[in-house]
């Protein structure tokens, strides 16, 4: 997953460049608020978060020396279990087979009911992003190194094949009907993939508007993609998923990572670790979009999951102590920071 660089940690741009339709400036007031902050503690860093809507569980993968897979009740955020030793950046669950997968190397496959490891699956590259595709019950493992994508049969836990996506992938999203879209971070394009045959059929060029891609979400009904970029300023590029035509652009907060689209409310939602915020973009029609609300959460809360049953958005963050004098920048150009405050890991629930 792409980490925020020092270059983008400046004031959020408030302008926008509309191509079609209407847009408005961001508003801090709106229907959403922080409903709950659960300080659940535990050691280790974090990356992706995953909501198993049918199983009513929230998975928080933790990495580092004390890595594990924390499991919480999706409604109450009370702990319900843990898989110790699974040190990963991401997780997903197949609701049919109840098989879970974590982006360790090799990939760890586990039982989502018993919370027990079933087996490991050898893969190449460096597993990072992960997505479950309900179209053919497969798990996509994304890597910044080749192979860029490894596809696993979720029921059998076997590798179906690999793909060269033409660049480093960040977030992927499925339309549920046989097409997968992937935001290619280093090429400023969106790869369009035939999920059945595992072949790239097109690349939608976004380089005229932005670079350094991160999150990607999809309004499958209206065929609209929301592709998020960090350079030259935090931006979402809204694209027709069928033609690749750019519809409009809108500003976002700093440090967007994973994003979602809520079809019940017709909102594209992004969490922004650099500015500690969540941005809600309202789709009034397939050609009309507006920044509806910017809600403050916590700095560092950069990844998210959506509970499509309740409309609740989940993100998470750590707290850090004072930054030591002359401390060097962190990995990927991240700004220097102090030591992690023990036990400070928190899950944040956002809703109406």
Give a topology summary.
Elements (H helix, E strand, L loop, with lengths): L32 E7 L5 E2 L3 E3 L4 E7 L4 E6 L5 E6 L6 E4 L4 E4 L4 E5 L4 E6 L5 E7 L4 E6 L5 E5 L4 E6 L5 E6 L4 E6 L4 E6 L4 E7 L5 E9 L4 E8 L3 E6 L5 E6 L4 E7 L4 E6 L4 E9 L2 E9 L7 E3 L6 E5 L28 E6 L1
Antiparallel strand pairs: 1-29, 2-4, 3-4, 4-5, 5-6, 7-8, 8-9, 9-10, 11-12, 12-13, 13-14, 15-16, 16-17, 17-18, 19-20, 20-21, 21-22, 23-24, 24-25, 25-26, 27-28, 28-29
Number of strands: 29
Radius of gyration computed on alpha carbons: 19 Å
The major beta sheet can be summarized as:
5 strands, antiparallel
Low-confidence stretches: 3-27
- What's the helix-strand series? EEEEEEEEEEEEEEEEEEEEEEEEEEEEE
N-to-C CA distance: 29 Å
**Average pLDDT number:** 90
Class per helix and strand makeup:
mainly beta
Molecular shape: globular
Strand percentage, roughly?
A: over 45%
Find the CATH superfamily of the domain at 47-205: YVTN repeat-like/Quinoprotein amine dehydrogenase
CATH class of the domain at 47-205: Mainly Beta
CATH topology of the domain at 47-205: Methylamine Dehydrogenase, Chain H
Helix content: under 10%
- Annotated CATH architecture of the domain at 47-205: 7 Propeller
Output the number of helix runs.
0
């Amino acid at each position: 997953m792409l980490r925020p660089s020092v270059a983008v940690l400046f004031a959020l741009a408030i302008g926008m460049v509309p191509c079609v339709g209407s847009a408005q400036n961001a508003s801090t007031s709106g229907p959403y608020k922080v409903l709950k902050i659960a300080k659940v503690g535990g050691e280790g860093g974090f990356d992706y978060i995953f909501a198993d809507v049918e199983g009513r569980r929230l998975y928080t993968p933790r990495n580092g020396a004390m890595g594990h897979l924390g499991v919480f009740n999706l409604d109450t955020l009370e702990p319900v279990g843990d898989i110790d030793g699974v040190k990963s950046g991401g997780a997903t669950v197949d609701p049919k087979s109840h098989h879970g997968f974590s982006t360790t190397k090799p990939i760890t496959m586990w039982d989502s009911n018993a919370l027990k490891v079933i087996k490991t699956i050898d893969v190449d590259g460096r597993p990072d992003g992960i997505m479950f595709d309900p179209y053919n019950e497969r798990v996509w493992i994304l890597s910044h190194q080749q192979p860029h994508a490894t596809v696993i049969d979720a029921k059998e836990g076997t590798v179906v094949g690999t793909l060269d996506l033409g660049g480093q992938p960040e977030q992927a999203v499925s339309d549920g009907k046989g097409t997968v879209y992937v935001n290619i971070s280093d090429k400023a394009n969106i790869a369009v993939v035939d999920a059945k045959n595992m072949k790239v059929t097109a690349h939608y060029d976004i380089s005229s508007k932005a670079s350094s891609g991160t999150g990607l979400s999809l309004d499958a009904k209206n065929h609209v993609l929301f592709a998020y970029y960090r350079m030259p300023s935090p931006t979402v590029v809204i694209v027709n998923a069928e033609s690749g035509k750019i519809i409009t652009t809108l500003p976002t907060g700093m440090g967007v990572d994973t994003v979602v689209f809520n079809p019940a409310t017709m909102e594209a939602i992004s969490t922004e670790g650099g500015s500690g915020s969540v941005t809600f973009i309202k789709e009034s029609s397939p050609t009309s979009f507006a920044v509806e609300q910017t809600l403050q959460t916590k700095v560092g809360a950069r990844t998210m999951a959506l509970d499509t049953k309740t409309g609740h958005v989940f993100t998470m963050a750590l707290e850090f102590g004072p930054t030591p004098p002359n401390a060097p920048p962190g990995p990927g150009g991240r700004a220097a920071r102090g030591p992690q405050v023990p036990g400070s890991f928190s899950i944040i629930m956002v809703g109406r």
